[in-house]
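Record type: monomer structure entry
Structure origin: computed from sequence
Chain ID: A
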Amino acid sequence: MKLIEHEKQGVEDWRPGVATRMLVSAVNGASQLCVFEQYCQPGLGAPLHLHAVEEVLTVVKGRAEIWVGDESIVVGDGHSVLIPAGTKHGFRNVSENEMLHMRAILAAPIFEASYDDRAELSRRYVPNK
């Protein structure tokens, strides 16, 4: 068993108006999962991208438009969307004045994403060895 104290984990600005806290990944000992949370200002979120593995996006608080492939849905608190591996997807906060709190779970311990926007920064969470 390994205890991970989230309040001690930092929050990173991934892009203007979008902050991310990596909760569980290979960095802190995970071997099968990556779990992180994002806090998005109104109108902002994650641009179109894909992962090589399956992902679950959950709206913890707020309302999000989530698009997966050619489909789009608006969901609120307590709803999850399953995204198949290799499928382009993204989301945005559709609220005019409320912060969106999302949780994402990836079926891999290392976060990797391929973005349509080549200007988007790539990030990898791997252990320092």
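Annotation 1: The first strand starts at residue 12 and ends at 15.
Annotation 2: The mean pLDDT is 91.
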